[in-house]
Design a protein that fits this description.
Elements: H1 2-10, H2 16-35, H3 46-58, H4 63-82, H5 109-117, H6 123-138, H7 142-146, E1 153-154, E2 159-163, E3 169-173, H8 176-193, H9 213-226, H10 235-248, H11 253-260, H12 265-268, H13 270-286, H14 288-297
Antiparallel strand pairs: 1-2, 2-3
Length: about 300
């Protein structure tokens, strides 16, 4: 398994988080196989893999997690086959679980403004405001946000250089507002937390070290509660808002895909459903034919004057 995990880095460019997730999936599978008396990859058959996926379902794992586990096992057993440790791939005929991707929760523009304006103006607040503004303006993943270096941001050009999944790099525009808050943080807030300026991180903690996902998640939750926002307040909600608000404003789907760093446009297309709901609501509210249909359903007396 260790040899396979190494190939994920060297040959596929998998991120550390992907390797950790796949390692957990395969370790869980190996424990399951040990209980069944299997001792080598060559002894594993299709039913062993299928039984394990059923076991995960019974244990309460969601379909998305089970699909990821199947993907990890496919990679592992193909490696074993290629290395001569097994004569065949026992996952070849095991179907992936089918599931419908849930529509992401999307905050309105007013919700986002309420969140941003709830942040206080002290040094930590300047940092948080800059991070939130940048997150909403660029649609970064939280892991991309907290690992940004100062050298990655070009305020003069209004661009940020992001290293995303698979170690792929992309350029994302900041926008004037976000650039302004980042500049304010660098000029007035950062030196209070990192007086020596030793940390290369763009955003630092009160101890002068780089921010963590957990720290930012917690801080964002505090601001959301202060703003009176209900429901899940995660950094990913702002990423959803970024994509959906762009599409509602008429942005091209391929442009949004590039900004989000999605390898597959099918991943981006989930936002078209959310944006589509908004468009249907606007159509029903403002289009004369749509208004006419509602009046007919409510028994229009013909005095509306509409077409």
């Amino acid at each position: 398994m260790d040899a396979w995990l190494s190939t994920l880095s060297t040959e596929r460019g998998a991120s550390g988080r992907t390797r950790e997730a796949y390692a957990r999936d395969v370790r869980r599978h190996l424990v399951f196989l040990t209980a069944k008396g299997r001792r080598a990859p060559s002894e594993v058959v299709r039913d062993d893999v299928a039984d394990h996926l059923v076991h995960l379902n019974v244990a309460g794992l969601g379909a998305r997690s089970i699909a990821r586990a199947r993907s990890a096992l496919r990679g592992f057993y193909r490696f074993c086959r290629d290395e001569g440790l097994a004569s065949s791939d026992p996952t070849a005929l095991v179907d992936a679980p089918r599931f419908t991707a849930p529509l992401p929760t999307v905050w309105s523009a007013d919700d986002v403004v309420a969140l941003l304006e709830s942040v206080p103006g002290d040094a930590l607040g300047r940092r948080d405001r800059a991070m939130l503004e940048l997150l909403y303006a660029s649609g970064l993943r939280v892991s991309e946000l907290v690992t940004l270096r100062r050298s990655a941001v070009d305020l003069a050009e209004g661009l940020v250089r992001v290293r995303g999944k698979g170690d792929k790099e992309r350029l994302v525009p900041l926008g004037d507002t976000a650039a302004g808050f980042v500049a304010q943080w660098l000029a007035e807030g950062r030196s209070a937390l990192d007086p020596s300026g030793r940390s290369p991180a763009l955003f630092v903690t009160a101890r002068g070290t780089g921010m963590t996902r957990q720290n930012f998640w917690q801080r964002m939750g505090q601001h959301a509660r202060r703003a009176g926002l209900r429901g899940k307040a995660s950094p990913h909600v702002l990423r959803h808002a970024f994509a959906t608000h762009l599409l509602r404003g008429g942005a091209d789907l391929r442009v949004v895909q590039a900004l989000l760093g999605h390898a597959d446009i099918a991943t981006t297309q989930v936002y078209t459903h959310v944006a589509g709901e908004h468009l249907r609501e606007q159509h029903a509210q403002h289009h004369p034919r749509a208004r006419g249909r509602r009046m007919v359903k409510g028994v229009d007396d013909g005095s509306s004057g509409g077409p």
